[in-house]
Amino acid sequence: MGKKEKLDAYFETESPWKSGINRLRQLISTTELGEDWKWNFPTYTLNGKNVLAIASHKTHFGIWFFQGVFLKDSEQLLRNAQEGKTKAMRSFYFTTLEQVDEKLILEYILEAIQNSRDGTHVKVQRSKIEVIIPSLLATAFNEQAALEGSFYRLTPGKQKEYATHIANAKKEATRKRRLEKCIPMILEGKGLNDKYKKC
Question: pTM for the whole thing?
C-alpha cells in the first residue's frame, strides 16, 4: 500500500474521531506544510523537517508538535507527551469536536511553521552506546572471522541488540540457540529487530 492509500485509509476509517481528524487535516491543508506518512500517522513537514502530526487514539484525537516546547502556548493548552522523557514534543488533545477552535489551532500551527523555518529545535544528545560482547559471541568471532567483521560493520545500536539478546538468556542452551539464530542475520548485515522497524 502506497503513502496516499495509507493516508486515505487513516482518514476514512470509521472511529469516534473521524470528523475531528478530518477537520484538522483540512485546516493543515490551508498551510504550506506537506503531508507525509511516518510512524503510522499522518505527518506534516516543511522542507523535509517534521513539524506536526495528527493522531487518533481510543480516548482522544489531536496534534503533535515535534518542537512544541518552543511554542508560546499562551493558552496553556499543550501537554508534554511523556513527562520527564520528552524534551521537545508537545500535544493538543481533544475529546469532542467542539473543542477544535480552528482559529486558535491555526495560530499554533503557523507559529510551529515559523519556528521550523527559523531552525528552532532541541538538539538531541546521543549517549555513547557501550557494547559488552558475551563470551559465546566472542568465541564465535574466533571461529568465524567473517562473523566478527560483519558484526562490527553494524551500527553500535544493532550490535548492542544482538549482544544483549544473547547474554540475557538465563540458560546456556538458550544462549546457544539464540546465537545460532543470530549468526545468519549478522552475516547478512541485518539488525535483530529490523523486520519490526519497517512500516
Answer: 0.62
